Amino acid sequence: VNVARTKFVCGNWKMHKTVAESVALVKELAAGLGAAAGKVQVAVAPPFTAIHAVAQALAGSAVEVSGQDVFWEVQGAFTGELSAGMLAEAGCKHGIVGHSERRQFFGETDETVNKKTAALLKAGLAPIVCVGELLAEREAGKTLAVVDRQVRQGLAGLTAEQMGKITIAYEPVWAIGTGKTATTAQAQEVHAAIRKILRELGGAVADAMRIQYGGSVKPDNARELMSQPDVDGALVGGASLKAPDFLAIVKGALP
Ligand code: PEP
Description:
Number of helices: 11
Shape: globular
Bound molecules: phosphoenolpyruvate
Helix content: 40-55%
Number of strands: 8
Strand content: 5-15%
Low-confidence stretches: none
Order of helices and strands: EHEHEHEHHEHHHEHEHEH
Structural class: alpha/beta
Radius of gyration: 17 Å
Largest sheet: 8 strands, parallel, barrel
């Protein structure tokens, strides 16, 4: 089945940008979308401190806001954490979960990814669920097995309708922040495998779900990556911190 999926490009700012810098950057983004406005779905994930100001600066624009992480409880004694409802109130429409840096440095597991995904959905936010293999796993021929486990466990227990609200981000860990990008063939192979798993889990909804590629996406490789049949956008780290680069990547998603 060939369903037209709107391409979705999200910038993950990680631990970068003050509030003032964040607002200045999104104003440049909103003003520079040009032909991509309304044709490519665009979001940014600022640090938590800047989310509210960014959402206010983007009111009425086509650029949406995402959290970089979330906690799964609604409220309570969880020092340092934020709920999905808090993200929604601050202006988020999306939430990233399972980023490899959360998995590597902050104890994120497939089980916590699953709880966070469910919590986002419950609060009306659209999850971006990150999966991807380590270099050693790729070299050992385990890429598809790792991604299979991460997708199945991350999405466990969700209905097809809930799955339809989710974006998967395939981010080979060896490509994140390293300047090494997966080849288009490597990306397409894993994206197609992910879509097959999504079909097993949710049936026809899989054809409408976006699968982003992430890992050193830059203006000069974005278009080719996103031209692959199962690459429906990009999750962009470093190159999302400068408006001209991020805008060029967004425009690379136009036909
Ligand atoms: C990321 O962390 O999601 C990412 C893809 O980073 P970069 O683009 O910097 O490799």
